[in-house]
Write a structure and sequence with these properties.
Belongs to the class I-like SAM-binding methyltransferase superfamily. RNA methyltransferase RlmE family. By secondary structure, this protein is an alpha/beta fold. It is 42% helix and 13% strand. Helix 6 packs parallel to helix 7 and helix 9 packs parallel to helix 10. The N terminus is likely disordered. The structure holds S-adenosylmethionine. S-adenosylmethionine binds next to helix 6 and strand 2. The site of S-adenosylmethionine has 24 residues, from helix 6 and strand 2.
């Protein structure tokens, strides 16, 4: 117990999306704060009150609690998968019919046999939702990456997200704790995909897929500094890095040739990536890169994403690597 600390519980950092504080306060946290921090803590408790009030009124937070989900983020991916994607796909199909070409018939972004890379996965909302959409028999698998462990942010909750995902995917779920921007972490990601592929071949599953992911998700957000412009630029940088990893750094070059692609995504694969709007000038490089490397590019604002937040999702479909003109 930490009776003296209870009054200052509101000062302990909270995950910006899930309901839970990252860990209980340690006496050291409170002692370490000198007198000069008292004014700041008053300000913080006001904003903390606003945050609690907003969480209380948020229907997605309530639904996430009722359904035992680790975060309200799951609803964003669900909406994109089950609502936005079918609409976009139908429109693209219509276009293809007019031009006489054929598109594979797909109803959802997450196909049952998909090989998914989930970047910025903690506390696990997207991985958990994706695991319910995949079928083991078809080789569906998720490799998830985060700086934090999946269950670290769920201290006050009894649910164990990793084992719930494993219940759906067994050994076809790999979690890598590390910084996605580091080479070491990227090597571990590729190693995990190689393992998934081996498992699939050993099980001799129907429709086994190759070693490359066909869907890269990034819900990564840089640690909030309190300055929204800085936060947006730092998160945009993470989004650009996810794009470069998925489609190859070459797509940021105006003379990009799809044949030179060196990214991890399979041909025809998709990228779904979060960023905070920060002006066309800042976003131009990302948008141009996406248009070079993908057949169609969309900016989505799911209903589950708070209206007052500048958060949006870039959905890039049909990665064109070798087949492009
Ligand atoms: C908004 S949360 C993700 C929520 C998650 N999609 C869900 O459904 O529960 C953003 C996550 O990005 C992670 N992140 C930020 N920078 C990262 C990096 N360089 N490498 C890996 N993860 C990172 C953070 O640790 C944080 O857990």
């Amino acid at each position: 117990m930490w009776p003296a600390a209870l009054g200052r519980w509101a000062e302990i950092p909270i995950c910006n999306l899930c309901l839970h504080r990252k860990r209980p306060p340690l006496i050291g946290d409170l002692v370490a704060r000198g007198k000069h921090s008292q004014r700041k803590s008053k300000e913080r408790s006001q904003s903390s009150n606003r945050w609690i009030e907003r969480q209380r009124r948020d229907p997605y937070v309530a639904m996430a609690q009722v359904q035992g989900l680790p975060s309200r983020s799951s609803f964003k991916l669900k909406e994109i998968n089950e609502f936005y994607f079918p609409h976009l796909h139908a429109k693209l199909e219509e276009k293809c019919k007019c031009s006489g070409s054929n598109r594979p018939n797909r109803r959802k972004l997450i196909q049952p046999g998909a090989l998914i890379l989930d970047l910025g996965a903690a506390p696990g909302g997207w991985s958990l939702y994706a695991s319910t959409q995949l079928k083991l028999g078809l080789g569906g698998a998720v490799v998830a990456v985060d700086l934090l462990s999946l269950d670290e942010t769920l201290h006050s909750c009894n649910s164990d997200i990793t084992s719930r995902i494993r219940a759906n995917l067994q050994s076809n779920f790999h979690f890598i704790q590390g910084d996605f921007t580091m080479n070491e972490t990227r090597k571990r990601i590729m190693g995990a995909f190689a393992n998934v592929s081996k498992n699939i071949q050993n099980n001799d599953s129907a429709g086994a897929i190759g070693r490359r992911p066909n869907l890269v998700l990034s819900d990564m957000a840089a640690n909030f500094t309190g300055d929204s412009d800085t936060d947006a630029i730092r998160t945009l940088d993470l989004c650009e890095r996810a794009m470069a990893f998925a489609a190859g750094t070459g797509c940021f070059n105006p003379s990009y040739s799809p044949r030179d692609g060196e990214g991890v995504l399979e041909d025809g694969g998709a990228l779904l990536c979060k960023f905070f709007t920060c002006g066309r000038e800042n976003e131009a490089e990302l948008m141009d890169a996406a248009k070079r490397a993908f057949g169609s590019v969309h900016i989505l604002k799911p209903k589950a994403s708070r209206k007052e937040s500048s958060e949006v999702y870039l959905l890039a479909l049909d990665h064109r690597k070798k087949n492009a003109k």
